[in-house]
Amino acid sequence: MKRIITSIIVLFVVFLSACGTPAATAPSPQPQTTLTVFAAASLTDAFNEMSKTFEAAHPNVTVKFNFAGSQTLRTQIEQGAPVDVFASADMSNMTALVSEKLAGASQIFIKNQLVVILPPNNPAKITSLQDLSRPGLKLVLAANVVPVGKYALQSLDQMNTAFGPDFKTKVLANVVSNEQDVKEVVAKVDLSEADAGIVYISDAIAAPDLKSIAIPANLNVIAQYPIATLTGSKNQDLATAFVAYVLSAGGQATLKKWGFTPLQ
Amino acid sequence: MTMLRLRSVRALRRFFQHLASRGHHDWIFVIPSLFLVGLLGLPILALILRAINKSFFTDALSPSALSALQLSLITSVISVGIAVAFGTPLAYMLARWKFPSKHWLELLIDLPVVLPPSVAGLALLIAFGREGLVGGALSQINVTLPFTTAAVVMAQTFVAAPLYVRSARIGFAEIDVRLEEAAHVEGANQWQLFREVMFPLAGRALISGAILTWTRALGEFGATILFAGNLEGVTQTMPLAIYLGFERSLGIAIALSVMLVGVSVVLLLLTRRLERKQ
Fold first, then answer.
1. Which residue from A34, A137, B92, B256 could staple onto A174, CB 3.0 to 4.6 Å apart?
2. CA distances from A54 to A40, A49, A59, A237, B254 (A)
């Protein structure tokens, strides 16, 4: 019994020291402020990079992210999650929070467009958008409550007009899963479980080993991303500074690098 | 309703009178217990209170709720069937036979019980996915498992079957070895012994194990969403519909949750009855 307890304690200490390594550095003289940013899953790579620049400019600030589908983030904010900044992949989730007085005035900070992604070895040998309607294909989309899922359906509507009346029906018959956010669509395609997925151009850039098929501008959808500080934020100045940084030339350049379309 | 309330008020009063009649040290036990009971009970209470409104039945009977309910019932019953069919011989072997590395096999079977379901889902995907360890060979003969109802059953069986094996193993192990020896002397073969002696005597353990497996299979979420994906009518079971419904229509999510709570309560009551009779 004693030996069992000792080994449990040893395991626990090893666990703790493993997670505690970064915290073991000397405590900073000024207290750390944490800025909590809830951002659409598609912003993961760009925002992670931008947080380093922001933290370098604000020495005592740590930026913490929660990346998920915008609809999940909105629900979490509505249920009282303590958040400073919200960046959504669509207007409707932002508008809801603004009208509920949970978010301050929002502004569009970046745009994005859709692309079809394929696994590295392209098992279904897809070469064109028309191939998406081929029976038996495994297509993964985001659920229609997720912004990118909604945009994908809009884009399919436009393809329907271009490629024939039953194109959308045939494509939707190939859908094998409706995922919770865009990164889960990428994961299923990356694992080669799905033959194709519809995601943002920025996701294709963040996963360079995937193949992709461009969607021409007339069939594509322009996703507008709004950002706002939350009315319940205890770090209003810092939150405003983060929004300003995202809108600044430096922030826009980083977003552009990750495949987003800057405002100008 | 008023009768019920009156009765519960009386029960509560009796409870406090009972406390007062004993030494004040009882609070050392009561207060910490109340905290935990509150944590466990309040969410369930909140769920039920929120569910009591006009739209409950329209939500509960909406097409997406019904298709999730139907899929959950079918897949979980199949999972229990698989657990019983393949788990009973395994549990019997574990209870009665001696063979090398038996404790490693027991550890393997207990592992899914403590493993996070997301780990289970990822492991299933890497094993049975299109480019997985086994899935690669399967896709050569045009069998693909991810995103199918079969994948839902596999995920449920993976996380839930060990509960049945565990319960059955204990049930078999508790049977007096002399009974078996007597049956052998009478000339019973292994199968007759199992059918005539072991199965009836371990019956309760087998049934309560099967019910536990059923509740676990009904509640499976993490492994399913990773391995089977989410498609209404094909892989969207009740827990998945609740997760998605949380963002689309809270009403459907609450209606489905209350239904799951109800089913789980009934199944737990059943297992408790079985255990008491034992």
1. A137
2. 19, 9, 9, 14, 41
Residues A231 and A213 in one domain: no
What is the distance between the alpha carbons of residues B201 and A174, in angstroms, rounded to a whole number? 51
Give chain A positions within 8 Å (CB) of B243.
Answer: 180
Measured between CB atoms, does A88 come within 8 Å of chain B?
A: no
Is the domain of A128 the same as that of A160? yes
Interface membership of B225 toward A (CB under 8 Å): yes
Residues of chain A in contact with residue B235, where contact means CB-CB under 8 angstroms, are 177
Chain B CB within 8 Å of residue A176 CB:
yes
Q: Residue A240: CA atoms inside 13 Å, Cβ hemisphere, count?
A: 7
Of B130, B247, B252, which to mutate for an interface test with A (greatest number of A Cβ within 10 Å)?
Answer: B247
How many structural domains compose chain A?
2
Rounded to whole angstroms, how far apart are CA atoms B252 and B95?
44
Residues of B in contact with A176 (CB under 8 A): 146-147, 229, 231, 234
Per-residue model confidence as pLDDT tens digits over B87-137: 999 999 999 888 898 999 999 999 999 999 989 999 999 999 888 899 888
Asked if B249 is an interface residue toward chain A (Cβ–Cβ < 8 A), one would say: no
A76 touches chain B (CB under 8 A): no
Are both A121 and A204 inside the same structural domain?
Answer: yes
SS3 B274: helix
Q: Are residues A98 and A142 in the same domain?
A: no
Average pLDDT, chain A: 90
CA distance B162 to B217: 11
Q: Are residues A153 and A200 in the same domain?
A: yes
Q: Which of A71, A145, A175 sits opposite B231 (nearest CB)?
A: A175
- Asked whether residue A135 falls in the same domain as residue A104, the answer is no
CATH number of the domain bearing residue A127: 3.40.190.10
Nearest to A177 among B131, B229, B243 (CB): B229
Q: What number is the ipTM of this complex?
A: 0.70
pLDDT digits 0-9 by tens, A142-198 = 999 899 999 999 999 999 999 988 999 999 999 999 998 899 999 999 989 999 999
Interface membership of A192 toward B (CB under 8 Å): yes
Question: Is position A26 within any domain?
Answer: no
Would you say residue A125 lies in a domain? yes
Least confident of B4-8, B52-56, B218-222, B258-262: B4-8
Residue A54 in contact with residue A244, Cβ under 8 Å? no
Which of A75, A138, A177 comes nearest B230 by C-beta? A177
Q: How far is CA B203 from CA B160, B198, B274, in A?
A: 19, 8, 10
Range of the domain at A179: 113-222
Which residue from A116, A182, A184 is spatially nearest to B146, judged by alpha carbons?
A184
B244 touches chain A (CB under 8 A): yes
